[in-house]
């Protein structure tokens, strides 16, 4: 992802919103900028949290998904359609808890950067680029569980 404008972030619930607690972006200047907060059900971060299911989008400009995941109101930015072309939002779950502990998010300005396994394109089957995020979400869940137990 060296040439992408990318983001990796960890959103956690705080009150009635999801706030970014940890982030890494393609540039230090971008990392230090302010971050949006999402309500459960709002945008792909809030949808993943509310539904307790990962959301993976190869092409956010696809009209079938764009309206469902678009930011509105104070979270809408003019650059969203250029900067967030592909994303994966993975809820951080522990056992049978009723709500996720947070959402791990990865975004890219490249179409097709994130795709679950068994997706194909003109050249055949694409690799599952979301699996490393699932593993990271499980590790984060384990760490949070151990922290609570201490």
Automatic annotation (TrEMBL):
List, alphabetically, the Pfam families matched: GAF_2
Q: Which organism is it from?
A: Ruegeria aquimaris
Question: What protein name applies here?
Answer: GAF domain-containing protein
| SUPFAM superfamilies (UniProt xref) | GAF domain-like (SSF55781)
Q: What is the lineage of its organism?
A: Bacteria, Pseudomonadati, Pseudomonadota, Alphaproteobacteria, Rhodobacterales
Q: Where is the GAF domain?
A: 12-115
């Amino acid at each position: 992802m060296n040439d992408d404008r990318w983001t990796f972030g960890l959103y956690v619930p705080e009150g009635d919103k999801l706030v970014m607690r940890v982030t890494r972006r393609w540039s230090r200047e971008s990392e230090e900028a302010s971050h949006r907060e999402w309500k459960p059900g709002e945008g792909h971060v809030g949808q993943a949290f509310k539904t307790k299911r990962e959301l993976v989008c190869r092409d956010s400009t696809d009209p079938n998904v764009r309206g469902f995941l678009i930011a509105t109101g104070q979270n809408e930015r003019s650059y969203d359609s250029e900067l967030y072309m592909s994303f994966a939002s993975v809820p951080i779950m522990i056992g049978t808890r009723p709500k996720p502990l947070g959402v791990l998010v990865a975004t890219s300005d490249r179409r097709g950067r994130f795709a679950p396994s068994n997706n194909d394109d003109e050249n055949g089957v694409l690799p599952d680029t979301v699996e490393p995020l699932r593993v990271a979400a499980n590790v984060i869940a384990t760490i949070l569980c151990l922290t609570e137990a201490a």
